[in-house]
Amino acid sequence: MSARALGIVLLLAATACGRGGSEGARTAAATPFDGDKAMEYVRTQLAFGPRVPGSEAHRAAGDWIAASMRQRADTVIEQRWDHRTADGRTIPLRNIFARFNPNASERVLYVTHWDSRPKSESASDSVQRKLAVPGANDGASGTAMLIALGDALKAARPTLGVDFLFVDGEDYGEFGPPDVDVLLGASYFAEHPLVANYHPLFGVLWDMVGDRDLRFDQEVNSLREAPEVVSLVWETAQRLGYGSTFVPAEGLAITDDHIPLLKAGLRVIDVIDLDYPWHHTPDDTIDKVSATSLKIVGDVAYELLKR
Ligand SMILES: [Zn+2]
Prior knowledge:
With 307 residues, the protein is an alpha/beta fold. It has one domain (2-303): Aminopeptidase (3-Layer(aba) Sandwich). Helices cover 31% and strands 19% of the residues. A six-stranded mixed sheet has the order 2-3-5-4-6-10, with helices on both faces. Strands 1-9 form a two-stranded antiparallel ribbon. A two-stranded parallel ribbon has the order 7-8. The longest helix has 16 residues, at 140-155. 51% of the residues are buried. Zinc ion is lined by residues 1, 117, 138, 171, 280.
């Protein structure tokens, strides 16, 4: 993703949850989310190699995510297509849509991208810039968090319907403007809905959520387009005692997978920590990610599903 301003105006409905509470009122142990397991799932993804669309690592990692979710969710739909790039190549992409309680009408949508970037343009030297990004944080962290959340939901079934959307091709091309060959999976999902009349109560995109030095400001497009969802997420984090990680301060405007989903009318915000020195470099590796950070995010994601 990249930071730049976007001007979309949507009508907003204030439906923020009114539950209050002071920081520290609940402890992290209040949810069964297992941060160590999430860390293990980061490691598993990195062992495949960079998950660059078209590569063997990408195919194998996609199979592993789909199989992992089949063990945890009620339904898994793989949405596959070939994408024609701006320079005329064809790459195979797939979104993985895993559903808990598929018949429930009240639903929550969680999104993450699972691909990794084919080049490291932010690296300091020209040889390194040609390398693919390992994507421990950028790609693997959100994916790992959702799979570990799947463990928790399998053990304690949610009453709400819950959908996990693992999108492909977020990070393939160039962030502009103009944006070229990026946000591919989220855009495809928005244009080819898998479910008729799909209107989740709210959605959260979890991106770069594993940084060992974790801090989330409130992303500007999210604040503008779905402020009630931002309030719900940050207030939930505060209630769990995570107010120093989820800081209620305005951050950057970031081009990310929530944008095509917002444009399609889904109320999805972006939870992202883009203050990450190893972003789009070969140094986005496992040592930059921590189980403690994944636990914080997983607890908030779990708590948001309680009704
Ligand atoms: Zn990226």
